[in-house]
Write a structure and sequence with these properties.
Layout (H helix, E strand, L loop, with lengths): L8 H5 L4 E8 L3 E5 L5 E5 L5 E7 L2 E2 H12 L8 E3 L22 E5 L5 E5 L6 E2 L4 E6 L4 E9 L1 E2 L9 E4 L19 E5 L5 E6 L2 E11 L3
Antiparallel strand pairs: 1-4, 2-3, 4-16, 5-16, 6-14, 7-8, 8-13, 9-12, 10-11, 11-13, 14-16, 15-16
C-alpha cells in the first residue's frame, strides 16, 4: 500500500463503533529562558492533528476483522483518511442538511496565511468557532484540515467574511478549491506502538484502541 494512496475514511471507519475519542491540534514550539527571566518561544515545524480512539466491545470474530483493518496500516507507507471525531459537521448543521448540494470553494486567502473566505454557501449559512473545514492543496496533493477560530455568516450571495483558522494555511492553497465542511478528512498514520489489541472476556473483546497523527506527505 503506497502512502500516497490512503485508505478512504468511509472504507476504514464504516461500521466501527467508537466508544471514546480524542482529537486535538499538537504544538510545535520550543522555548528558552534568558538570564533576565524572559521566556522566549519559537515555532518549530508544522502543527499536526493527533487523536486516540477506543472502540466498543465486540464479539471476537468482529474484533478480529477490525484488527485486520488496523494491522494493514501498521507498516511503512500505509496511511488512512481521518475526519474529526466525534462531531461530523458544523455546530449549526452537524449532518450537512442545510448545506445540501452546495459546494463551497475558497474565494480569497488572507496575506497573513491565517484566514480565508468561502463562496458557494447557502445564504445565511453560519460557520462558528470550533467548526472544522478541509481541502486539498499542493502537488502532489496534500490534505489541509483547519478549525475555525473566528467565524462568519454567508451573505445573500453565499460568501463569508474572513474566517480565521488554526493551524495557519500552508503554501499551495489556491482559489476555487472545493472545501469540505461535513466530515472533512486529513491523511494520517497509525502511531507506531500505539495499537492495543484489546482483551478477551467471555465472548467479548474489549479495549481495542490506537492513536493516529496527521501526515503532510
Amino acid at each position: 500500500m503506497a502512502e500516497d494512496d490512503p485508505i478512504a475514511a468511509a472504507a476504514f471507519w464504516g461500521g466501527l463503533r467508537v466508544a471514546t475519542a480524542r482529537f486535538s491540534l499538537g504544538e510545535a514550539l520550543s522555548h528558552s529562558r534568558t538570564r533576565g527571566g524572559e521566556i522566549l518561544v519559537a515555532d518549530q515545524g508544522a502543527r499536526l492533528w493527533t487523536g486516540t480512539v477506543e472502540l466498543w466491545q465486540a464479539h471476537h470474530d468482529a474484533a478480529d476483522a477490525v484488527m485486520a483493518r488496523i494491522e494493514a496500516l501498521q507498516m511503512a507507507g500505509a496511511a488512512l483518511m481521518v475526519h474529526p471525531l466525534p462531531r461530523p459537521g458544523p455546530i449549526h448543521d452537524p449532518e450537512g442538511v442545510v448545506l445540501g448540494a452546495a459546494t463551497p470553494v475558497i474565494a480569497s486567502l488572507a496575506p497573513n496565511a491565517r484566514a480565508l473566505t468561502l463562496s458557494g454557501l447557502p445564504a445565511g449559512y453560519l460557520l462558528a468557532p470550533g467548526d472544522m473545514l478541509g481541502f486539498p492543496y499542493g502537488t502532489p496533493v496534500k490534505y489541509a484540515l483547519h478549525r475555525v477560530v473566528l467565524g462568519s455568516t454567508a451573505g445573500a450571495g453565499g460568501s463569508t467574511g474572513l474566517l480565521e483558522l488554526v493551524p495557519g494555511i500552508r503554501p499551495g492553497a489556491s482559489l476555487g478549491t472545493p472545501v469540505s465542511l461535513v466530515r472533512p478528512a486529513m491523511k494520517a498514520l497509525i502511531v507506531p506502538g500505539s495499537v492495543n489489541p484489546g482483551q478477551g472476556q467471555g465472548i467479548w473483546r474489549r479495549g481495542i484502541a490506537f492513536s493516529f497523527i496527521q501526515t503532510l506527505r
